[in-house]
Amino acid sequence: MAVVNKKGLLFVLILLAIIFPLIVPNQYYIHILTLAFIWTIAVYGLNLLSGYTGYLSLAHAGFFAIGAYSLGLLTVKVELNYWLAFMLSPIITCIIGVMIGLIALRTKEHFFAIYTLCVGYIIYLIIDKWDSLTGGVRGLIGIPAPADIGFISLSTPLSQYYFVFTILLLVIFTVYRIVHSLTGRSFTAIRNSEPLAQSLGISPMRNKLTSFVLSTFYAGLAGALYASFIRFIGPEIAYTTITFDLLTYMIVGGIGTLSGPLIGTLLIVWLSQNLQFLQDYRMLIFGPLLTLIIIFAPGGISGTFLQWRARRKEKQRINMTTMKKQA
């Protein structure tokens, strides 16, 4: 019954996302929701590494920027076919991710977080200072929108909305398959106890590197979509504040849950848009909110709900057992 309910809820949410532009034909809201979907893809990558493997990467914005600049440079300067550039962008991000991961994953816990923070800042500096390649502070302009697929045009905001939404669904499906596979269970085992996982025959380094590279792949994919959607990118997309925004989305929604990245990103993006008049005090609002969530609901919205439901089921089971004994 629970599986049916989950599938029914998922179907309703997908249906709502499909009909939303038809019910609310406001270009601004479509633009914001499309952008939220792109950020969600990046958060799913971060959640796979931090939530399921237990390694907090603070270089995620840097990999997001690598994906965006890969697409921008390949289409604008190399003048490569859009779809070929789009496919190469996350692959390039993965290759760089492998090189960084081989060194970064030799460290653990807060040392890993500090190392990746430094890596993320170095990526930002390279983009900002390598003026001849990246355009420096001027950024890259003229990035093309997604090329048409046959008779399907992807040049309008509505078509781009459905295109990004389709990619998001594919990302959620692949993450779901990864998490529920033997590889995903190995990630969770490493998160719970790395020495115990190693004693069970799980290779920590290989699985951590796999998780790290998959995380960079989703970041690069999100970056490529962002560059296609905005069509102008600057070095600020690699700055550490973007990483902390992604962390906020993940923690609020629920770290280590499948629905958390989607819930957290959509909620925070919606709140940010409705509280634009308080933009100068953004950190004063979200800082204490994030602190309260970490203290009182470390599982985030999704994790707290799952814990409440598990306790409720356990209580019902105990009540039923007691009633049977009394009967």
From TrEMBL:
Localization in the cell: Cell membrane
Record keywords: Cell membrane, Membrane, Transmembrane, Transmembrane helix
Residues spanning the membrane: 7-24, 30-49, 56-76, 82-104, 111-127, 161-179, 212-234, 246-271, 283-308
A GO term for molecular function: branched-chain amino acid transmembrane transporter activity
Xref: PANTHER family: HIGH-AFFINITY BRANCHED-CHAIN AMINO ACID TRANSPORT PROTEIN BRAE, HIGH-AFFINITY BRANCHED-CHAIN AMINO ACID TRANSPORT SYSTEM PERMEASE
This protein's name: Leucine/isoleucine/valine transporter permease subunit
Topological category with respect to the lipid bilayer: Multi-pass membrane protein
This protein's GO CC annotations: plasma membrane
Primary localization class, coarse: membrane
InterPro entries referenced in this protein's UniProt entry, alphabetically: ABC_transp_permease, LivM-like
Pfam families to which the protein is assigned, alphabetical: BPD_transp_2 (PF02653)
Origin: domain of life: Bacteria
